[in-house]
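[job 4417] fold queue: 2 targets
>>> target A
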Amino acid sequence: MLSNTDAQNQKTNAVTITATALQDKIKGGWAGQAIGVTFGGPVEFRFQGTMINDYQPIIWYDGYIKKTMEESPGLYDDLYMDLTFVDVFERSGIDAPIEEHAKAYAKAGYVLWHANQSGRYNILNGLSPSQSGHWLNNPHADDLDFQIEADFSGLMAPGMPNTAAKIGDGIGHIMNYGDGWYGGVYIGAMYSLAFISSDINYVVKEALKTIPPQSTFFKCIDDVITWHNQYPNDWKQTWYEIQKKWSDDTGCPDGVFNAFNIDAKINSAYIVMGLLYGKGDFTQTMQITTRAGQDADCNPSSAGGILGTLMGYEKIPTYWKMGLKEAEDIDFKYTTMSLNDVYQMGYKHALEIIKRNGGEINGNSIVIKTQMPQAVRLEQSFKGHFPTEKRLINKTLADEFTFNFDGIAFVLKGEARPKKQSSWDYRGDFTFLTELYIDGIKTETVKLPANYLLRRNELFWKYQLPGGAHTVKVKLLNPSADYELRMTEAIVYSETIITK
């Protein structure tokens, strides 16, 4: 185990850890996630652009984890999404092709949202995993989806942040790109470094070296570190600074001109804020990361997993583990895996990655060849695209619909849905067939399933158009008496910020 000073002045690239300690840290990483997401669940996206005041209680009691896992299993998308990929590694080996990971997640029975759902739609409709998350194909490319799912990559690669990034690269690009991918790279790197340093400040700062400094993600997290140095005893002041500079979402169509923000970098900023101001204290870390708002269950889940890895399962305070053992044999919904299962699988996979990267296993002594973090490649979504208008549509498409705009891009929001039941509940086969025309030229034939699991998050979009006036026309090829295609809003982008 490295102290902060040892880690910063490391002259060897090898660290020795006992098998017992490694198992304890992996167990702490997975348990910390489960604790964090359970704690923040009741306030997830209930506080958008505002923090949760200190006087507002957030419940926690003995038996709460088990009760939540049994009664609200959908809350644990942070974990069962991870486990989708862990299961592929378990069944097909560490070298399982990305296509197998993409197929497993795209055909899973769970409901998805944002970048995950857009990636699922793209995979099921013929795009490769390397293109399904790209911002030109996925308006949610910068959302935090891979960030909440990347824990497995760092837990598989103790002390090896570059290997963690490599493990997560192909998987992260199934649903994300740019800052959305960087969120997962950064989270994975913090997990990885939490195995070899006992100083959370070091983990936060060193992991950031995996992110290109030119990226907006790096600049956001670097700002949080700077503000923590400037206001070391006032996390709320740092929260306000984050809001002032980084709270505008330009990508996610649900977050544009809205207080709702599922962007990876701002939610990662809340994670980092909780870790830095929490100072290694599990309770303070949970409270701050949750009370920052927005995705207030995923963020404490990530923070809890990283801190749980750093301190190990046994040192997570008893208060936060009360009732956990009763839940550790419960399979997460949509999986055949429990926490106890993943504790064992995670350890096995970590040992394999350690050996593959030059480490050694000698009984209870494990030698890890550690890595100095290196920045991954630079990629940025929505570069030069600035939202300038959100136009109310609120029409049902009967045959054709046309609208004009001036700019370089548009997104048309809406949904295909049954008329006589909730769209959330529909799992049938009906699919609308449509065509998209831009400036009189047919650019795309689009399938729009009414099945909520298979839906397209947005109806139509196009980025990187020439600046100027454009006409968009959509045609419905197969109208139905039982289903409708509802158009709600159009978002317009320009190449410059327009202020009046």
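>>> target B
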Amino acid sequence: MENTPFYFYDLNVLDDTLNTVLNCTESDNFHIHYAIKANNNKKILEIIAAKGFGADCVSGWEIEASISAGFKPSSIAFAGVGKTDDEIAIALTNRIGMIHCESLEEILVINEMADSMNYIPKIALRLNPNVSALTHEKISTGLSENKFGLTVLEFAELVTIHPSLRNINIVGMHFHIGSQIIEMSVFEQLCERINEIVPQYENTIGKIEYLNVGGGLGVNYDNPDQGIIPEFEAYFDTFRWGLRKLNVPVHFELGRSIVAQCGSLHTKVLYVKKSESKNFAVLDAGMTELMRPALYGAKHKIEKLNQEDGLFGELTYDIVGPICESSDSFGSDVILPELRRGDILSIRSCGAYAESMSLRYNGRKEVGNNLKRQVNTSLRLVRTA
């Protein structure tokens, strides 16, 4: 077994997932942008780009990384509630396909910068549909109290001044209501709101040419092998039916659903200890390698890999990491074959928001996310037979 911890990616699962998405959308005017924030490993980006997907970026670094990995600039959409001037300049310089704008002031800044660069970019307005995603509050983005999207007041002001904004081309709308959504009824509600909002947009801004409905499709964290390929058919059918009256290209920004199930975090048991009421398994991976449980209270399936050693029955463990925080825990009361020092565990569904959210807290090995970030040397990319 190689040194732990490391991220293990099954590229066959990734290929199967990408092909399923393509098969579900080949007969429609649907365009898929992979959300780079889910996993920005260069090899994975190259595989996804080679399949012809576009990219959904939320930083200047992600734009540059996407282009470097082979995504066409014209297929890149740039989102984000707080774009810096430098990041906007990167988008304009690379002539990317679309900029999603989330505030009136941002639109004014882009208009001014575009003028100085003698270029007219296409932009889409991110509007908040006030639809509950029925998911964790920290990954819900479509309610009126969330920070995302133009406010009603800003949209009204934009309607008044947009004829004077001669250096931008407002062509459509962008929505994204949250992540890890498993109820198709949520997307049905989004379609209903879009159908209500489109006439208002066209009566004030102009004919819609671009509609981005975000992403958010959830995955099966509890039993990943039973849901290795997410419910793409039901997901796309929901929008195919819900938006059937609109004759407009529909864009999606899927991240988690594309990469989550192809990745696992492999980690070693450093120590097993007992208290009066608990068994603890202390791992060499922590919240620095997988932030989701500490950040959201997320749960991942945990498996023992060296099952031939599991001959002594099952016990219940709190699975914890080495970081100096009480929140550094992967699960409580997890039932596993009896663990011993040196056992290898696999934390499943870590293809999304594990490597890309990794930290250097506590002096952990290189993990950051700056504009020059290199792939972590501890990473392993594996294609199984």
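[job 4417] complete. Note on B: Residues 261-382 form a domain with the Lyase, Ornithine Decarboxylase; Chain A, domain 1 fold (CATH 2.40.37.10).
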